[in-house]
Amino acid sequence: MESLKNRSIGIFDSGVGGLTVAKSVRKLLPHEDIIYFGDTARVPYGNKSKATITRFAHQIMFFLMEKRVKLVVVACNTASSLSLGSLKRHYRVPVTGVIGPGVREAVRLSKNGRVGVIGTSSTVSSKAYDRELAKAKGSYRLFGKSCPLFVPLVENGFTSDPVTYKVARKYLKEFKAKRIDTLILGCTHYPLLKGVIAKVMGNVRLVDSSLAVAREVKGMLGDKGLDACRGRRPGTIRCYVSDDAEGFRKTAGMFLKEKIDVKKVTL
Amino acid sequence: MESLKNRSIGIFDSGVGGLTVAKSVRKLLPHEDIIYFGDTARVPYGNKSKATITRFAHQIMFFLMEKRVKLVVVACNTASSLSLGSLKRHYRVPVTGVIGPGVREAVRLSKNGRVGVIGTSSTVSSKAYDRELAKAKGSYRLFGKSCPLFVPLVENGFTSDPVTYKVARKYLKEFKAKRIDTLILGCTHYPLLKGVIAKVMGNVRLVDSSLAVAREVKGMLGDKGLDACRGRRPGTIRCYVSDDAEGFRKTAGMFLKEKIDVKKVTL
């Protein structure tokens, strides 16, 4: 199994946001190599249909299969919500998304069982978080709210601008009456708005699922005996994008604090 | 030439925004049939590279060629800025974009020769408006500013929200010192923000190029003897999108005040 162990972990996202997940995986599993794919030619996914996102996800899976990855992380909440089931049905390689780990973390943190989730329009309307929470033991209520302006605000550097506070107050207002004590940041861009969201929400626990995902990946690799050999050289990260490597490299700095190798490919 | 005359005009855009152009064409040329393509699976174009947008534009041209259109309007400012030259070089069918008509309209309106243009990041950094204005007789200065949040604000219905005023004041502030008297709305979504932009800019003429484009189309059809026969039945409009016909139909209502037929196709 030596050769399988030393294969890379594949991580994909609609764009640059999934690097928050890649960063957590690198931190927790420093010996693992990562191949990251960002679909920058077709970003964003958040307001597109299930059929289209599933088609894109399969194209990316095919790319990652050719790179012979040992495990795939769907780091995009929208693709996890709409297409994870289809990917799991079709491929032998273990695949995980970001919904399950985020929900399990929220369940661990919530005291009153009232949990909020914010995400893109497609994520929230898919009800994927609701279905995952229904699997948890105990009684929980989930309140979802789509926040479609958060991604463009982050991508345009408005991470602590007064405009963003105004938008956040508008979007998050309805959670006050719901008395949630835990809020899942159900989009890879949202951890960059943690400061704004925390201020607007006050005394509510925020779930950044990237750490939970990294723990899930560690568990899966361990269970299957696929973890890279200890004492091996430090892991590497190689990024592929479907458009404009240079632009990706620049924005990536906001997410991942290291220099990365980025190549453009056409799927 | 009868059969050529009765073919449709092809209009394409990254999404729904180009319907502002389709609307003007229908108004000025009520006997013409229109085939509209919105690339909703890959929208937006505004922050993507020239190579990628040009690849998308050629795929759409191929689709329109199969529909046997007699003329193509690139209704997207980004695609016009980045890819019009390539399309004109490769196809026999007459192709027009939105940059030239917009610039000629601005030249007609400006008294002091100081013209502003707002658009997506890719449009503004392409310098396509600068190159077009350089062809005008007389002495003009162009000041460009990208406003990347305007499209998501429009698409999420924030067309007259206080947030949008705040963003507009931030983006447009720098035009004050430039003493422009004319501002080109260099993106098909921006006419929907006319109210906000007019209030923020005060006494400045706003150029909505959709009317200018319709006049250009009329002129081109006339010159080439390709205009639909007068006295013919009223023209029709058929829309094709690369994702989610239902969502397009809904948003289309904001742009085009008539019921439309929308089909999803995979390019």
How does this model look, in words?
The structure is a homodimer of 267-residue chains. Chain A has helices spanning 2-5, 19-28, 50-66, 77-90, 99-109, 121-126, 128-134, 150-155, 162-178, 194-201, 209-223, 245-255, and strands at 9-13, 34-38, 71-74, 95-96, 114-119, 141-146, 182-185, 205-208, 237-241, 261-264. Chain A is of the alpha/beta class. In chain A, the strands form 2 sheets. Chain A has a 6-stranded parallel β-sheet, sandwiched between helices. A 4-stranded parallel β-sheet of chain A has the order 6-5-7-8, sandwiched between helices. In chain A, α5 packs across α7. The longest helix of chain A is centred in the N-terminal third of the chain and has 17 residues, at 50-66. The radius of gyration of chain A is 18 Å and the shape is globular. The mean pLDDT of chain A is 95. The interface between A and B is medium-sized, with 27 and 27 residues.
Oligomer: homodimer
Q: Report the structural category of chain A.
A: alpha/beta
Number of strands of chain A: 10
CATH topology descriptor of the largest domain in chain A: Rossmann fold
Residue fraction in strands of chain A: 15-25%
Low-confidence stretches of chain A: none
CA(first)-CA(last) distance of chain A: 30 Å
| Secondary-structure element pattern of chain A, one letter each | HEHEHEHEHEHHEHHEHEHEHE
Described by the principal axes of the CA atoms, the overall outline of chain A is globular
Strand order of the largest sheet of chain A: 4-3-1-2-9-10
